[in-house]
Amino acid sequence: VLADAADAVRDLCAAEPHKPVLGVGVAVPGPLDHRDGVLRRVTGFPQWDGYPLRAALAERTGLPVVLDKDTNAAALAVALSLDEPRGDFAYLHLGTGLGAGLVLGGEVHRGARTGAGEFGHQTLQLDGPLCGCGGRGCIEVLCLTAEARGDRGEAARVLGTGAANLVGLLGV
């Protein structure tokens, strides 16, 4: 995968040699260590846990690499696309997991340990089912369990409760 990504970067650079390439941006499902560029418990890719993706890709391409969660990258894209800047908002992503990209004070908020926005891992049910993160009763596992039962109404209720908690907590 890494070799293919590096080859794709080289091909893109070769196709437009008169346009300087400043670097490579990579967005992956979280969580990850944004400061060190190391993947952590990437949703759907347990074999990548602890992998220093930023350094490995920079070494293969010879370019600076920025690595961030897909939700943060999406929130940044939304923030940059707005005609009128909004100071605070949450971008919710529903995919292989549930995540949020947070823009607070006009900037992407990652938190002190770069894990802010792990929306799907709010605990709603203390004695709930075990989640892949190791917690119990997380929004993500409750939604997935309801969906597996075919109970979309319950999945929507759980998701709505989590979203309301996020809005109330952050005032977005």
CATH homologous superfamily caption of the largest domain: ATPase, nucleotide binding domain
Question: Which oligomeric state applies?
Answer: single chain
What is the 3D shape?
Answer: globular
* Beta-strand proportion: 15-25%
User: Biggest sheet: strands side by side, in what order?
Assistant: 5-6-7
Largest sheet: 3 strands, antiparallel
What is the CATH architecture assignment of the largest domain?
2-Layer Sandwich
Low-confidence stretches: none
Kindly provide the name of the CATH class of the largest domain. Answer: Alpha Beta
Total number of strands: 7
Protein name: ROK family protein
Pfam families: ROK (PF00480)
InterPro entries: ATPase_NBD, ROK, ROK_cs
Family: Belongs to the ROK (NagC/XylR) family.
Descriptive terms for the model:
172 residues, alpha+beta, Nucleotidyltransferase, domain 5, three-stranded antiparallel sheet, ROK family protein, ROK_cs, ROK, ATPase_NBD
Task: Report on this structure.
- With 172 residues, the protein is of the alpha+beta class.
- It has two domains: 2-70, 2-Layer Sandwich (Nucleotidyltransferase, domain 5), CATH 3.30.420.40; 86-170, Nucleotidyltransferase, domain 5 (2-Layer Sandwich), CATH 3.30.420.
- 37% of the residues lie in helices and 17% in strands.
- It is built from five helices and seven strands.
- The chain has helices spanning 2-15, 53-61, 70-81, 139-148, 152-170; strands spanning 24-28, 32-33, 38-39, 65-69, 89-94, 98-104, 107-109.
- The strands form three sheets. A three-stranded antiparallel β-sheet has the order 5-6-7, sandwiched between helices.
- A hairpin with a 2-residue loop joins strand 6 (98-104) and strand 7.
- The chain is globular, with a radius of gyration of 18 Å.
- The mean pLDDT is 90.
